[in-house]
Amino acid sequence: MSKVFVITGPSGVGKGTLISALLERVPDLELSVSATTRPPRAGEVDGREYHFLDPEDFERLVAQGEFLEHATYSGNRYGTLRSEVERRLGEGKSVVLEIEVQGARQVRDAMPEAVQVFIAPPEPADLRRRLQGRGTDDPDAIEARLETARRELEAQDEFAHVVVNDEIERAAAELERIVRAELGLESSER
Ligand code: ADP
Ligand code: 5GP
């Protein structure tokens, strides 16, 4: 049984961190590589973290209907290519989408069977600390992300599952339990 899992929540909450842990713990689960017009950060590789596209190429794919969902976030375009999801489902794999809230809503409409998980911070102030600690965004970009985060946090009641990322190990275990239960897999020994 393959499924699509949508993992959403504000920037800096720890989505990427928890998804890395999840992918190590659950077999036959793969992350969909999104497309974006955001420039690569140091260490990011085209085709691995994202498909990095020019704005013109991104909009051409939108017009061609190639995206399952797409959104503008902090001035850049982000989207899930249908091909990324369909190829993995075709191989019998389950797929994780790490996307922001507008995109998660679009997936809810297009694919109501997808499992939606919102990752929440223990306190809103943790987001600033984590974004500063990650060190990938300049102060203006962090402020823009925190402004968006305020609206995203208000949306958490829309989601079937909410996982508070207080401690990585505990939150990763909770996320793993949700995913294993949805896939009908035995719970792990951890
Ligand atoms: P997102 O993908 O949601 O933007 P990241 O996974 O990049 O967030 O995490 C943002 C920062 O917070 C990273 O530096 C990460 O190491 C740190 N972090 C993640 N989870 C926790 C946690 N439970 N407690 C403290 N720091 C965390
Ligand atoms: P970042 O620039 O930090 O990599 O991502 C910014 C935001 O865009 C994050 O909330 C991330 O989850 C979201 N994002 C990444 N890929 C996609 C996507 O394909 N679609 C949507 N809607 N959001 C995405």
Quick gist of this model?
This protein is an alpha/beta fold. Helices cover 43% and strands 22% of the residues.
Layout: helices, strands, pairs:
Blueprint (H helix, E strand, L loop, with lengths): L3 E5 L6 H11 L3 E3 L2 E3 L13 E3 L2 H9 L3 E7 L2 E6 H9 L3 E5 L2 H10 L4 E6 L3 H11 L4 H16 L6 E4 L3 H16 L7
Parallel strand pairs: 1-7, 1-8, 2-7, 3-4, 8-9
Antiparallel strand pairs: 3-6, 5-6
Helix pairs in contact: 1-7, 5-6
This protein binds adenosine-5'-diphosphate and guanosine-5'-monophosphate.
Query: Order of strands across the widest beta sheet?
Result: 2-7-1-8-9
Q: Percent range for helical residues?
A: 40-55%
* Distance between the first and last residues' Cα: 23 Å
- Cα-atom radius of gyration: 16 Å
For the secondary structure, the number of strands is 9
Helices, by number, come to 7
Global outline: globular
The small molecules bound here are:
adenosine-5'-diphosphate, guanosine-5'-monophosphate
Structural class: alpha/beta
Average pLDDT reading: 96
Which residues form runs of ≥5 with pLDDT under 50?
Answer: none
